[in-house]
């Protein structure tokens, strides 16, 4: 039976620490021994990590579904331990490489978020590091009291474990360590990880983590100041709103300026909260009800009404409304953002994230991430949407 509901466990079987004597590099050892996750959490994490910057939400949405269809036949829906079944061995070589890399990146992202990191983006989007080194890590992460971490992901389901450990070690020493103690955006990179997903076994996958060892004079979090993460937060939500709304809104958040004073969203309710998606993504939902190509006058026909309809994709991204309000009020129309204070953004509570993980209602469920991005599975039930507008002048949403 394909993997559709079973919560899986993945253990860390190697933690290799590296000492760094740079006084700006404090280190932070992993705080986790194992992680647990649902199918939707892995699919959402993998799709989120697959793109750099300019990606149309109407492409990201089916990609989430594509990743689900790629992975779910090759993971059982019975056992507790996460493993890739032997059926995946029949892939052509180029598909095997994509498959292993996609799974490994999603697992590495989940390892970081399980370890207390909340906000992240691709290293290249945030910018910085050591210009003398061409090799760079995949991601930069931050959280509350965690400091700023660089992360490289590796994955393999072939060869010997000793060989894979060498690959993970090289990822840390060659792609992460050279950029520690350097500014990444407006924050200092104080530690880093290379997280390897060894997925060769058909019984039990493993995490192999190489990291910056915590200094003996520091506690496990390094005593970092929370404001160091503000630039990473901005880029995190630029990617989140690119997935959930539009390329343009993501671009506007990165540069701190919006093209328009009013931004239209679609709002739906799930898990007792409101979630916002974008018109650009929603265009894919409407052809079954209206003539195509899209008629802009449809907007006026929809105003003030709630429309139950079935979307052609099982999965779509959305941002929690209260998070969206704080982000848009903080990061739009503020220039480059270098002088702004860190916004009051608490992570989404664990109860809500667990409720999404365990949801088994008429709708198909989904995943909620700590930063407020969700991957919602519409299942077999038409969802109800209503239009709302973000009013930049008043820094609030209003219904149409």
Structure summary:
It is built from eleven helices and 16 strands. It has helices at 39-49, 57-71, 93-114, 123-126, 161-176, 230-244, 247-255, 279-282, 298-302, 321-331, 350-358, and strands spanning 8-18, 34-37, 117-122, 139-143, 148-156, 183-184, 187-198, 206-212, 262-270, 273-278, 307-309, 315-320, 365-368, 373-377, 383-391, 396-399.
Description:
There is one protein chain. Helices cover 30% and strands 26% of the residues. It has 400 residues and is an alpha+beta fold. Strands 1, 2, 3, 4, 5, 6, 7 and 8 form an eight-stranded mixed sheet that branches. Strands 9, 10, 11, 12, 13, 14, 15 and 16 form an eight-stranded antiparallel sheet that branches. The longest helix has 22 residues, at 93-114. Mean pLDDT is 84; it is low at 52-60, 219-227 and 285-300.
């Amino acid at each position: 039976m394909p993997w559709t509901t079973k919560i899986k466990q993945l253990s860390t079987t190697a933690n290799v620490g590296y000492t760094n004597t740079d006084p700006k590099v404090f280190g932070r050892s992993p705080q986790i021994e194992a992680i647990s996750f649902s199918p939707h959490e892995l699919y959402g994490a993998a799709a989120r990590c697959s793109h750099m910057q300019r990606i149309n939400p109407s492409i990201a949405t089916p990609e989430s579904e594509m990743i689900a269809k790629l992975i779910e036949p090759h993971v059982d829906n019975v056992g507790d331990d996460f493993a890739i079944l032997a059926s995946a061995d029949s892939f052509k070589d180029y598909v095997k490489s994509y498959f292993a890399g996609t799974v490994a990146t999603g697992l590495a992202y989940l390892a970081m978020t399980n370890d207390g990191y909340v906000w992240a983006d691709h290293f290249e989007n945030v910018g910085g590091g050591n210009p003398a080194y061409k090799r760079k890590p995949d991601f930069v992460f931050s959280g509350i009291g965690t400091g700023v971490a660089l992360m490289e992901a590796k994955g393999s389901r072939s060869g010997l474990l000793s060989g894979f450990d060498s690959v993970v070690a090289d990822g840390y020493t060659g792609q992460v360590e050279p950029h520690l103690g350097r500014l990444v955006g407006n924050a200092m990179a104080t530690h880093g990880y290379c997280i390897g997903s060894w997925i060769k076994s058909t019984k039990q996958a493993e995490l192999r983590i190489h990291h910056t060892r915590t200094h003996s004079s520091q506690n496990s979090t390094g005593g970092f100041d929370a404001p160091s993460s503000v630039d990473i937060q901005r880029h995190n939500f630029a990617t989140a709103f690119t997935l959930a709304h539009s390329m343009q809104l993501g671009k506007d958040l990165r540069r701190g300026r919006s093209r328009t004073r009013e931004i239209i969203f679609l709002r739906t309710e799930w898990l007792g909260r409101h979630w916002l998606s974008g018109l650009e993504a929603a265009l894919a939902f409407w052809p079954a009800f209206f003539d195509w190509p899209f008629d802009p006058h449809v907007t006026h026909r929809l105003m003030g009404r709630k429309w139950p309809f079935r979307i052609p994709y099982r999965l779509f991204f959305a941002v929690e409304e209260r998070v969206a309000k704080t982000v848009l009020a903080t990061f739009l129309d503020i220039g480059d953002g270098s002088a702004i204070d860190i916004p009051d953004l608490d992570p989404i509570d664990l109860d809500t994230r667990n409720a999404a993980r365990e949801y088994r209602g008429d709708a198909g469920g989904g995943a909620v991430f700590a930063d407020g991005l969700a991957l919602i599975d519409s299942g077999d039930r038409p969802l109800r949407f209503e239009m709302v507008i973000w009013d930049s002048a008043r820094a609030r949403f209003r219904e149409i």
